[in-house]
Amino acid sequence: MGIDYDALADKLRSHAMSLGHFDAVSGHEPKSVPGTGLTAALWVQRIRPGVTSGLSNTSALVVFTLRGYAPMVQEPQDEIDPRLVTAIDALITAYSGDLTLDGEVMAVDLMGWSGTPLEAQAGYVTIGTTMFRVLDLTIPLLIDSVWTQST
After folding, report:
1. pLDDT given at position 151
2. pTM for the full model?
3. Hey, is 130 helix, strand or coil?
4. Strand ranges, E, within 27-151
5. With 0-12 CB in 10 A as exposed, 13-18 as middle and 19+ as buried, what is 108?
6. How far lies 109's CA from each of 42, 88, 97, 140, in Å?
7. Angle CA 132–77–118, to nearest 5
8. For the structural domain made of 5-148, what CATH number should be given?
9. Nearest to 24 by CA among 57, 70, 61, 62
10. How far is it, in rounded angstroms, from Cα 74 to Cα 120?
11. Where are the domains of the chain?
């Protein structure tokens, strides 16, 4: 029992890459410029007991952030947001289906029954001297029977 972080993160990164929108998906927030194309980074944001816990086992809510990056200096500038939205929309579409990451998760908490819904928030980040348009996707994963409760 317990959270297999490596398996979860690897499967989320592989899945994001398999959709064909990102040039790369790293497992950490970049400290240097991530690239000139559309890239992404994934990291854990929060872990807590889930809402589906039983009498002997506790499920977990593991919330990841996947941030899509697009450099602000590129042409055509009017295509920056559409490319980011298309990539994040492809992920939301997949997560809205029956995505279990090969049995690693019970469900993606689409509507936020656990308190955290699947959602995206746009913004800007400067790394070094390069400004990026970003779209942060909050990915709440519900994992069944992670911790054993003692009596």
Report:
1. 63
2. 0.91
3. strand
4. 39-49, 57-71, 107-108, 119-127, 130-148
5. buried
6. 18, 16, 11, 5
7. 55
8. 3.30.2000.30
9. 70
10. 23
11. 5-148
